[in-house]
Amino acid sequence: xxxxxxxxxxxxxxxxxxxxxxxxxxxxxxxxxxxxxxxxxxxxxxxxxxxxxxxxxxxxxxxxxxxxxxxxxxxxxxxxxxxxxxxxxxxxxxxxxxxxxxxxxxxxxxxxxxxxxxxxxxxxxxxxxxxxxxxxxxxxxxxxxxxxxxxxxxxxxxxxxxxxxxxxxxxxxxxxxxxxx
Length: 181
What we know:
The chain is an alpha+beta fold and about 180 residues long. It has one domain (about 5-170). It contains seven helices and six strands, in the order βαββαβββααααα. It has helices at about 15-25, 50-60, 90-95, 105-120, 125-135, 140-150, 160-170, and strands at about 5-10, 30-35, 40-45, 65-70, 75-80, 85-90. The chain has a six-stranded antiparallel sheet, with helices on both faces. A hairpin with a 2-residue loop joins β2 and β3 (about 40-45). About 45% of the residues are buried.
């Protein structure tokens, strides 16, 4: 397996989220974004299990995390301060290639959890767009994560140009090769 990494999105300032993420075990935050509307994102190379719940307790607000496996699969965890939690899998077809048991991530349960999560955050989600992301496929799981944020009512986490540059670097420096990522 190659690159792993993650992102966390929460109702917090960038500075607050960076601090909370470090305190929740998301070490070495290496990027961030102000998503507008009081929402921020941080990016890190490794995500501990249960990061969303730990961050929700620290921020007092809904948190969504995505842990990536080789940019091929995304493991989504949503949590609210009140204790609501949901999980989803991005790029289900690719996950099957990794022999990840997709039946452990039922789409209907994820959809219901995502809609409740969005409502707890004061967001207006598009149920059909959320479903399309949860059942959709993309070359990069990060693209599905950006679409999920949009479907939940949050602006995409990275400008298109920046995302395209990251993808170009990944393609030109696949895991295992030397050189900058």
